[in-house]
Amino acid sequence: MKHPHHPTMTAEQFRAALDRLGLDLLGLAHALLDLGDPRAAATVLRRVHAMAAGEIRVPADMMCLLKCFERHPDLMRRAE
């Protein structure tokens, strides 16, 4: 059940956001790890693939991070 106050992002919107940022799934996984994601690289990549395929929902923190990358490209460059 969707909560009316929780934003959602479809897999298509997720992939479109990555396209706008010039990132592929591997690039996003690398950026997340470079920014301090404590999970194993394989786990991060598996989750990113699942989001892009629509197998799992895109979490709110991921939506927020993508918006931050769009608004502040220097954050993404810092992660490279």
SSE topology sketch:
Layout: H1 11-21, H2 25-34, H3 41-53, H4 60-71, H5 73-78
Description of the molecule:
There is one protein chain. The protein is mainly alpha-helical. It has one domain. 65% of the residues lie in helices and 0% in strands. The chain has five helices and no strands. α1 packs parallel to α4 and α2 crosses α3. The longest helix is centred in the middle third of the chain and has 13 residues. The radius of gyration is 12 Å and the shape is globular. The termini are far apart.
Question: Characteristics of this structure?
Answer:
mainly alpha, 5 helices, 80 residues, 0% strand
Overall mean confidence score, pLDDT: 89
Task: Tell me the number of structural domains.
Answer: 1
| Order of helix and strand elements from N to C terminus | HHHHH
Q: Which residues form runs of ≥5 with pLDDT under 50?
A: none
Separation of termini? 37 Å
Instruction: Determine the fraction of residues in helical runs and give it as a percent range.
Output: 55-70%
Q: In one word, what is the shape?
A: globular
